[in-house]
Amino acid sequence: MSKALVIDTKKRPQNPIHPAQARQLLRNKKAVIFRKFPFTIILVESKPDAVVEPLRIKIDPGSRTTGIAVVNDASGEVVWAAELQHRGFAIRDSLTSRRQLRRTRRNRKTRYRQPPKHEWFRKGNKQPCPQQRRDGWLAPSLMSRVHNIETWVKRLCKFAPITAISQELVRFDTQLMQNPKIQGKEYQQGTLAGYETREYLLEKWGRQCAYCGLKEIPLQIEHIHPRAKGGSNRLANLTLSCENCNIKKGTMDIRDFLKKDPQRLKKISQQAQKPLADTAAVNATRFKLLEMLKATGLPVETGSSGLTKFHRTTQNLEKTHWIDAACVGKSTPTLMIKGIKPLLITANGHGKRQMCATNKYGFPQRYRTHQQIHFGFQTGDIIKAVVTKGKKGGTYVGRVLCRATGSFDISTPKGRVAGISYKYCSSIHQRDGYSYGF
Q1: How much is the pTM?
Q2: 55-87+141-171+283-347: CATH, from 3.40.50.720, 3.30.450.20, 3.30.420.10, 3.90.1150.10
Q3: How far is the CA of 282 from the CAs of 63, 237, 262, 290, 294, in angstroms?
Q4: What would the mean pLDDT of 27-41 be, rounded to a whole number?
């Protein structure tokens, strides 16, 4: 398990401790639970002479899942880890649905209305148009990832002695792949350059042989136009193939090798010409995230995925999101990950502001109430219900769906339990837009 985070009586972060030590402090009433997720205790009496060791937050951003790890650089111990599931695609779908409903509603009411014509710049206004997107603008589905990571970085800085941050800034170091001697440093000219190129090719060619399509086998870097006939080492001339196809092709021209399979030849030719600009699109949110991390005032270290993979493979670690996060950056020490079980965090949002629910045609179906808190609970809270009588007797722990009638539904790992009275419920963790698991 990850270590328990500790704060003193003045809410200053202290050294994280083992869960067994935390349980002992709680039993002896020397500490109380301050927060469930991340699990944090607050000391009853502070120790003025306590020495606090600095920690580093390491982040591996992803489109669906972001890995987060808190590492002690001096000892290499991974203190705390988590995997954060984003909801960017859900936001995109919600915005699309809202736009469609709005357009159909307008068409019903004003079928022949002309679209609005903005004459903002014609009137000589020097201020920017209100509907003009500013530089650095990102779609809400993309910004949600940045905001989720920002929330957890600030939260961890409150409960742990964080002094530095590491972020995987780019998926691939494109300059290094084009010119391994761009900075003349030894680590770039050696094994790492091969990791950058290989990781990029694995992503570009779908981790399969370009000639036969086999997956989950050892793949070799192969020149589309053979080196023996003047082929270069540029990325546009590199692909992946299995050993059999590589030997069979030899120094043959790809047009001769695939003359009986023109469709595959066409596919490889098109795939090979994809520019490196595709990689820049993947990195769009990462630079926005970098700005946010620098705004915290802590020193920020950046690295590429090739460097992350280099550290992970040299230490013989398995590939998971939180381990990738722990391997980010040149500051990565020899890691100690024994017993670490990451916290699984899922972003669920804070509910809807929609006051009128509609059917699939956009017509009002029912109205939502302004009141969100019922009997001291609100939908999304994590509660514990101890039912002492009736057919549903037992103990249930999970997220609650509140109703004004006092009859709640609880979403548990074993399924949804309906019709639980608020009288049996007690709060464990108030709603904060996330759900948790292990």
Answers
A1: 0.72
A2: 3.30.420.10
A3: 9, 22, 31, 14, 20
A4: 93
